[in-house]
Design brief:
Order of helices and strands: EEEEHEHEHEEHEHEHEHEHEHEEEEH
Distance between the termini: 37 Å
Number of helices: 10
Helix content: 25-40%
CATH superfamily of the largest domain: Response regulator
Strand order of the largest sheet: 5-4-6-7-8-16-15
Strand content: 15-25%
CATH topology of the largest domain: Rossmann fold
Bound molecules: beta-D-glucopyranose
Radius of gyration: 21 Å
Largest sheet: 7 strands, mixed
Length: about 375
């Protein structure tokens, strides 16, 4: 059993310690009685525009239907107002349990409160819902660990322990309204900051926060590839057009990595020659294809099937009034309540491991990836 400290996923969200791998049972949620045979589960997802949420939604529906539940799934086009009104409609139409992946973790308190008043249990999916009392459970991957894995990958690949440097790196943060993004940057920064302090790492653009809490300054709103591409283009034009070497880019996820890679392509960087290391997360299809083409060095894979299966198990345990399994010691303080959490472990995937990890496991077919 591995014990380690895990940091906060958002400003208000704090988790002290996690014992990953160990599960404990949590008392059943107090709710109105649910008939598992006819229960309807409301699922609210952020957007169809980013690949992973399509996979999440589809798998969650499949997992819940396999357990005999009816589902209603809605995507909110990355618009918080739309997400609030979709959830409110689900509450009014009396769904039995809600599973919500918030766009902005901080604005759902009123609608979650109205779910609570009607005795509808709420599970926060992947992203924590902050400042709301009625959040019963949270299921996610260890966000801090995601960033740590990205940082450690860069340290190893650049050889920062043995090489003197300086190495040029450009840092990107996730969407400023996403509580997970703080965890990703916090994890990466915990690994990389000592190398900035001793001068082994430098950022020619100067876009480096004073500490981990300043990550929003380099955040890309809405996790949009096009915005990351234009930011990368600006940095390349302003700081690298004189031939300055770029060794690495810390990208917190694949949608940003895709935009960054498009900017590198457009600027004439060549894989295998002067292409920098680029990190990512999610194992999105386009990014895995880029990994095989040496345009992306790694991705942190969070198997959305495991997340969906775990959320479905939580739903089932709540509906049947059973103890709900959570990770021992994992409780996120969302500002008003400590939310019992089930945490999954993310995994690094590099190009050579794609066939074994992503194809043999059935996440993609070989044909999907052009293999
Ligand atoms: C998720 C990431 C994803 C990002 C953009 C985050 O909250 O945890 O897996 O890349 O949102 O969709």
């Amino acid at each position: 059993m591995k014990r380690r400290d895990v940091l906060r996923t958002g400003a208000a969200a704090a988790l002290s310690t996690v014992l990953l791998g160990a599960c404990v049972a949590e008392r059943p949620t107090q709710s109105r009685s649910i008939d598992p045979g006819s229960a309807v589960i409301g699922i609210s997802m952020p957007t169809k525009a980013l690949e992973r949420w399509n996979r999440d939604g589809a798998h969650l529906v499949e997992a819940l239907q396999a357990l005999g539940y009816e589902t209603t799934l809605q995507y909110a086009d990355n618009k918080t107002d739309q997400q609030i009104s979709q959830i409110q409609n689900m509450v009014t139409s009396a769904v039995d349990i809600l599973v919500i992946a918030p766009i902005d973790g901080t604005v759902l308190a009123p609608v979650v409160q109205s779910a609570k008043e009607r005795g509808i249990p709420v599970i926060a999916y992947d992203r924590l819902i902050e400042g709301a009392e009625g959040v019963d459970y949270y299921v996610s991957f260890d966000n801090f660990r995601v960033g740590e894995l990205q940082g450690q990958f860069l340290v190893e690949q650049l050889g920062l322990e043995s090489e003197a440097g300086p190495f040029a790196i450009e840092l990107f943060g996730g969407s400023p309204d996403d509580p997970n993004a703080a965890g990703f940057f916090g994890g990466a920064w915990s690994v990389l900051s000592p190398y900035f302090e001793d001068g082994t790492l430098v950022s020619p653009s100067g876009k480096v926060p004073a500490d981990a809490s300043g990550w929003q300054q380099i955040g890309i709103l809405g996790w949009e590839s096009a915005k990351a591409q234009s930011e990368m283009q600006t940095r390349l034009n302003s700081f690298y057009s004189d031939g300055t070497t770029l060794n690495a880019v810390l990208s917190p996820n694949d949608s940003l990595a895709l935009g960054i890679e498009q900017a590198l392509d457009a600027r004439g960087f060549e894989p295998g020659k002067n292409w920098p290391l680029v990190t990512g997360q999610d194992a999105d299809k386009a990014n895995v294809i880029n990994m095989l083409a040496e345009k992306q060095s790694m991705t942190v894979w969070k198997d959305t099937r495991d997340l969906g299966d775990r959320a479905a198990t939580m739903v089932d345990q709540i509906a049947k009034g059973q103890d709900v399994e959570i990770t021992e010691g994992a409780e996120f303080d969302n500002g008003v309540t400590a939310v019992p959490t089930f945490m999954l472990d993310p995994l690094v995937v590099t190009a050579d491991a794609v066939p074994e990890l992503l194809v043999d496991s059935g996440f993609y077919t070989a044909a999907d990836l052009g293999l």
